[in-house]
Amino acid sequence: MTTVTASDVDGDTTQGLVLVGHGSHRNPWSEAPVRDHARRLRAWSAFDEVRAALLFGDPSLRDVLRTVAADDVYVVPLFMSAGFFVDEVLPRELADWSGTVTCTDPVGTHDAVTDLVVSRAMAALDDADPAEVTLGVVGHGTSRNPDSADAVRGHVERIRDDGRFAAVRSAFLDDDPGVGTLFDRTPTDRLVVVPLFAADGLHSRRDVHAALATADDRVQVADAVGTDPNLAVVVVDRATAAGATARPHRTVPNRPTDAERAFLAWLERGDDPPDERYRALVAGVERTFGELAVRTSLGGPGGREYAVRHRADRERPPGALVTFDDPTVARRVTKLTDHGHYRPLATARSLPTGWAMTGLGPAALLRTLDAIYPGAIRLWHRERTGDLSVTDYETATARRTGRLAVAADLEPDDVTAVADACCRRCIKTPTWDASPDRPLDVTVDGDVPCPEPCSVFVEAAATVARSGSDANAAVDSVLAPDEPAWWRAVGASVTPTATPTRRTTGRTAESDHRTEDKP
User: Fold this and answer.
1) pLDDT number for residue 218
2) pTM
3) Where in the sequence is the domain holding 393, given as residue range(s)?
4) Of 506, 509, 507, nearest to 185 (Cα)?
5) Confidence class for position 486, pLDDT limits 50, 70, 90
6) Is 177 exposed, middle or buried (0-12, 13-18, 19+ CB in 10 A)?
7) H-type helices in 302-425, by residue range?
């Protein structure tokens, strides 16, 4: 457990929980468990504030910490093992943070996760007798950090001691024994594999299936452990073990924050005289925010009703758009561009058209906007109140380790070139400089402040620094990744087609499952 600073908890101290996941610039659904668990925890009202954050994606961990309102913050890593990200990346991201921030142990190393592994296996087996089945638990692993495999081996030992399955084996994507060796080590006719991953992403949906050649009907692959709804209980346990005092009904659900109240007032032009504002609301007030058009009118819950659509669709008749009224689908609707490409940067100027969210009350509107532009309202408000801290490019990249550390070597003119290529494609306006003594000579007209170079920017910058490639091409490689958009249907659960590898292979090729910031 890493504690940045400490303070005594008393009755007047507010407590926040930040659930942080890896995220991905290549996989549309890797962020889903982080958001889903955060939503469950928020509904329990056990903390004054619950936020989701990503190391690669929106909102970033540091942007969340910039805007969290709670006095004491507990950061819980939604990672399945210790290793590079938990041991190096998270402490580095938190080390210079002011306030009370405590980083707990990762959820995947908790003993209770053993039961979730078994539960996943039993669900995949249906009515089969586990005494006639071999269970394989698959983790990432890496030869560069032995701690990465410890969680898998610990769960395997506990399940083996229970004696429920005929045999229990461990396997790894990037270590020995490899996933492809499971068949050779299976003494039974049937094999059930449980991926000890945080999400049903490229590893569990592509790499594990490919290594096992799962067209074979003797093997079932379960859903990733990190997607189990019961993992939210483990998150709370990690936080309370670190000193949090979670309790039911601590907060009133759906009560807007100061930032949200200010934003709702801005939407209906709250600074106008009351009579003018009322007349405008009768007809409907429309304001744009990024690529969105938000219309406010009288009626609905809370006395206001809202509709959201792409600003390019403002003149299209309602019947020409696919309409939704459930905020939980907003992120799925906007994950892909009109051309079916994954949008790794939620605030990129590439929102799809042809949809509308209608009949929303204030709480539903705020959830919708936060799903489409995560954390944007809080950043917008912090800038308006003059309370937004910023980090320049030189400082932000100096703390990088792993393959992205090379971004710190980028020449100042190249930083400007990457900013010109990347930031103009985003609704955010950079408020950071190239270095403490050199401003960023790029002007972007955006609606939301950007207080620090984002993960997309840093990855593009690292590409330019490493290979000398054109800045626009480097940004394209991140914002329009080569990975096929396997999940084109909204909310679809589809296993991508993969070319099976030999079952006897050990470690999966490094290039087949890149980790964005691996050492």
Assistant:
1) 83
2) 0.88
3) 384-479
4) 506
5) very low
6) middle
7) 330-333, 362-372, 376-384, 393-398, 412-422
Q: Which amino acid is at 159?
A: I
Q: Which of 337, 372, 407 marks a domain boundary?
A: 372
Residue 342 carries which DSSP code?
A: B
What is the percent of the chain with per-residue pLDDT over 70, rounded to a whole number?
87
Q: Identify whether residues 341 and 271 lie together within a single domain.
A: yes
**Domain match, 223 and 117 both:** yes
For residue 246 the two structure tokens come to: 């979670």
What are the residues facing 221 on neighbouring strands? 193
DSSP element (H, E) containing 50: strand 49-56
Asked if residue 103 and residue 237 are part of one domain, the reply reads: yes
pLDDT digit string (tens) for 100-120?
A: 799 999 999 999 999 999 999
CATH number at residue 34: 3.40.50.1400
pLDDT at 286 over 80: yes
Instruction: Work out the mean pLDDT of the chain and round it to a whole number.
Output: 87
- Between CA 55 and CA 89 the distance in angstroms is 9
Residues shown for the chain = 519
What strand order describes the sheet that includes 72-77?
2-3, 100-103, 72-77, 15-23, 49-56
